[in-house]
Write a structure and sequence with these properties.
The chain has 164 residues and is mainly alpha-helical. It contains five helices and two strands; from the N terminus they run ββααααα. The chain has one domain. It is 51% helix and 2% strand. It comes from Serratia marcescens.
Length: 164
Protein backbone atom coordinates (compact mmCIF):
# COMPACT_ATOMS: atom_id res chain seq x y z
CA UNK A 1 0.00 0.00 0.00
CA UNK A 2 1.29 3.47 -0.79
CA UNK A 3 0.46 6.91 0.48
CA UNK A 4 0.53 10.06 -1.59
CA UNK A 5 0.67 13.05 0.69
CA UNK A 6 -0.17 16.39 -0.90
CA UNK A 7 2.59 18.93 -0.66
CA UNK A 8 1.58 22.27 0.81
CA UNK A 9 2.35 25.09 -1.59
CA UNK A 10 3.78 28.19 0.03
CA UNK A 11 4.03 31.57 -1.65
CA UNK A 12 7.45 32.79 -2.72
CA UNK A 13 9.23 34.73 0.00
CA UNK A 14 8.17 38.36 -0.10
CA UNK A 15 5.19 37.63 -2.35
CA UNK A 16 2.17 39.68 -1.29
CA UNK A 17 -0.75 38.69 -3.51
CA UNK A 18 -3.36 40.23 -1.22
CA UNK A 19 -1.78 43.66 -0.88
CA UNK A 20 -4.44 46.37 -0.87
CA UNK A 21 -3.67 49.44 -2.97
CA UNK A 22 -6.88 51.10 -1.81
CA UNK A 23 -8.59 50.65 -5.17
CA UNK A 24 -6.06 52.94 -6.89
CA UNK A 25 -6.35 53.16 -10.68
CA UNK A 26 -4.58 54.99 -13.47
CA UNK A 27 -7.03 56.64 -15.85
CA UNK A 28 -6.01 58.09 -19.18
CA UNK A 29 -9.17 59.31 -20.81
CA UNK A 30 -12.26 57.60 -22.12
CA UNK A 31 -10.58 55.68 -24.96
CA UNK A 32 -8.05 53.67 -22.96
CA UNK A 33 -8.97 51.12 -20.27
CA UNK A 34 -8.28 51.93 -16.62
CA UNK A 35 -5.32 50.20 -15.03
CA UNK A 36 -6.13 48.87 -11.56
CA UNK A 37 -3.00 48.67 -9.42
CA UNK A 38 -4.24 45.62 -7.54
CA UNK A 39 -4.70 43.68 -10.79
CA UNK A 40 -1.31 44.82 -12.06
CA UNK A 41 0.37 43.89 -8.77
CA UNK A 42 -1.21 40.43 -8.77
CA UNK A 43 -0.60 39.70 -12.46
CA UNK A 44 3.03 40.77 -12.42
CA UNK A 45 3.81 39.48 -8.90
CA UNK A 46 4.88 42.84 -7.57
CA UNK A 47 5.35 42.42 -3.85
CA UNK A 48 4.76 44.79 -0.95
CA UNK A 49 8.29 46.18 -1.07
CA UNK A 50 6.98 48.44 -3.84
CA UNK A 51 4.78 51.08 -2.25
CA UNK A 52 1.48 52.09 -3.79
CA UNK A 53 2.90 55.56 -4.51
CA UNK A 54 5.89 54.13 -6.38
CA UNK A 55 3.69 51.66 -8.23
CA UNK A 56 1.34 54.50 -9.22
CA UNK A 57 4.30 56.55 -10.50
CA UNK A 58 5.75 53.67 -12.55
CA UNK A 59 2.33 52.73 -13.91
CA UNK A 60 1.53 56.30 -14.91
CA UNK A 61 4.80 56.48 -16.85
CA UNK A 62 4.01 53.13 -18.50
CA UNK A 63 0.56 54.39 -19.54
CA UNK A 64 2.08 57.58 -20.95
CA UNK A 65 4.66 55.59 -22.93
CA UNK A 66 2.09 53.11 -24.26
CA UNK A 67 -0.42 55.82 -25.17
CA UNK A 68 2.30 57.76 -26.97
CA UNK A 69 3.15 54.68 -29.06
CA UNK A 70 -0.54 54.24 -29.92
CA UNK A 71 -1.65 57.86 -30.44
CA UNK A 72 -2.12 57.52 -34.23
CA UNK A 73 -4.00 54.25 -33.71
CA UNK A 74 -6.31 55.94 -31.22
CA UNK A 75 -6.94 58.82 -33.63
CA UNK A 76 -7.77 56.39 -36.46
CA UNK A 77 -10.16 54.41 -34.26
CA UNK A 78 -11.92 57.51 -32.96
CA UNK A 79 -12.27 58.77 -36.54
CA UNK A 80 -14.01 55.47 -37.34
CA UNK A 81 -16.47 56.12 -34.50
CA UNK A 82 -15.02 53.92 -31.76
CA UNK A 83 -15.30 55.70 -28.41
CA UNK A 84 -12.99 53.29 -26.57
CA UNK A 85 -10.50 50.51 -27.24
CA UNK A 86 -13.14 48.12 -25.97
CA UNK A 87 -15.48 49.29 -28.76
CA UNK A 88 -13.01 48.42 -31.53
CA UNK A 89 -14.31 45.23 -33.20
CA UNK A 90 -12.38 42.15 -32.11
CA UNK A 91 -13.23 38.58 -31.19
CA UNK A 92 -13.54 38.35 -27.39
CA UNK A 93 -11.39 36.00 -25.35
CA UNK A 94 -12.85 35.27 -21.89
CA UNK A 95 -15.25 38.17 -22.45
CA UNK A 96 -12.34 40.60 -22.91
CA UNK A 97 -11.21 42.24 -26.13
CA UNK A 98 -7.72 41.04 -27.09
CA UNK A 99 -6.93 44.71 -27.76
CA UNK A 100 -7.70 45.58 -24.13
CA UNK A 101 -5.72 42.55 -22.93
CA UNK A 102 -2.71 43.57 -25.03
CA UNK A 103 -2.93 47.18 -23.91
CA UNK A 104 -2.85 46.05 -20.28
CA UNK A 105 -0.01 43.64 -21.04
CA UNK A 106 2.03 46.47 -22.54
CA UNK A 107 1.41 48.73 -19.54
CA UNK A 108 2.01 45.93 -17.02
CA UNK A 109 5.26 44.86 -18.73
CA UNK A 110 6.64 48.40 -18.92
CA UNK A 111 5.71 49.01 -15.29
CA UNK A 112 7.44 45.82 -14.12
CA UNK A 113 10.50 46.53 -16.29
CA UNK A 114 10.79 50.03 -14.86
CA UNK A 115 10.44 48.84 -11.28
CA UNK A 116 12.93 46.03 -11.81
CA UNK A 117 15.43 48.45 -13.35
CA UNK A 118 15.12 50.80 -10.37
CA UNK A 119 14.98 48.20 -7.61
CA UNK A 120 18.06 46.24 -8.68
CA UNK A 121 20.40 45.78 -5.78
CA UNK A 122 24.03 46.62 -6.36
CA UNK A 123 26.18 43.72 -5.23
CA UNK A 124 29.77 43.12 -6.26
CA UNK A 125 29.89 39.44 -5.24
CA UNK A 126 29.76 36.69 -7.83
CA UNK A 127 26.20 35.82 -6.76
CA UNK A 128 25.24 39.48 -7.06
CA UNK A 129 26.60 39.62 -10.61
CA UNK A 130 24.60 36.53 -11.58
CA UNK A 131 21.47 38.02 -10.00
CA UNK A 132 21.94 41.31 -11.86
CA UNK A 133 22.46 39.41 -15.12
CA UNK A 134 19.27 37.43 -14.55
CA UNK A 135 17.39 40.66 -13.85
CA UNK A 136 18.76 42.20 -17.05
CA UNK A 137 17.38 39.25 -18.99
CA UNK A 138 14.02 39.64 -17.27
CA UNK A 139 13.96 43.37 -18.01
CA UNK A 140 14.76 42.73 -21.69
CA UNK A 141 11.94 40.17 -21.89
CA UNK A 142 9.47 42.59 -20.30
CA UNK A 143 10.35 45.33 -22.79
CA UNK A 144 10.02 42.78 -25.60
CA UNK A 145 6.56 41.76 -24.33
CA UNK A 146 5.50 45.42 -24.25
CA UNK A 147 6.75 46.01 -27.81
CA UNK A 148 5.00 42.87 -29.05
CA UNK A 149 1.72 43.88 -27.40
CA UNK A 150 1.86 47.35 -28.94
CA UNK A 151 2.72 45.91 -32.37
CA UNK A 152 -0.15 43.41 -32.04
CA UNK A 153 -2.59 46.25 -31.38
CA UNK A 154 -1.24 48.09 -34.42
CA UNK A 155 -1.60 44.94 -36.53
CA UNK A 156 2.13 44.87 -37.26
CA UNK A 157 4.47 41.89 -37.31
CA UNK A 158 6.31 41.20 -34.10
CA UNK A 159 9.66 40.54 -35.74
CA UNK A 160 11.82 43.32 -37.07
CA UNK A 161 14.59 42.70 -39.54
CA UNK A 162 16.65 45.14 -41.54
CA UNK A 163 19.28 44.70 -44.16
CA UNK A 164 22.46 46.47 -43.32
Amino acid sequence: MSLVAPKEINPIEGDAPDLDDGGAVVKSGAFWPEITLRDLRTSMRINGKVTTDRLMHATTEAVLHTNDQLKEYRHDQETQGHASLEDVPAELINDVSPLVYRYRRAVYSITKASLTEHYRDIDTTRDGEKHAEALSTQIDMLWRDARWSIRDILGEDRGLAELV
